[in-house]
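User: Some background: our group keeps a shared notebook of sequences we're curious about, and every so often someone picks one and asks for a predicted structure to add to the entry. Today it's my turn. The entry only has the sequence so far, pasted here. Could you supply the structure so I can complete it?
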Amino acid sequence: MNMLRNCPFFPVPQRVIRSGTWKLLKRIAQAFYIGLLHEAERYSSINLVRSDKQMVALIGGSFRSFREARIRLKEHGLITYRRSDGGKYRYLLLDPRSGTPFGAKPSASPKTAGHYGVAPFGSKLASRKAASRDDAVQGVRLEF
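Assistant: Of course. Here's the predicted structure to add to the notebook entry:
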């Protein structure tokens, strides 16, 4: 039964909580993820283009803390992103069960998950150095 029947809400993937990923994230990364999930529901798309200024207006925080949040969310296979024109970022929300975009074919193997620029769920996290070297996500086709 839906307890929130009379209140607008948006979903958070259960795997993020039940796997323990949520408690590994700092508060700003948690807020950033919730902000992206909210925007995905609001605009009916897992592909989002947002500036840090827009995210500050939505969830608070600082530009510097957003950099760290993006890196952590990518390491945990929740998002992938790349820098876009005009100080904006292109985000793609990923299924935490597989590390592939929501709606990707379930037959995608861990080898094809690398195509999306993230390690599949359950694999070792990318090193901090590798995650911070370049915001460009190779092999990801972000459509808007």
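Suggested note for the entry: The first strand starts at residue 47 and ends at 51. Residues 14-132 form a domain with the Arc Repressor Mutant, subunit A fold (CATH 1.10.10.10).
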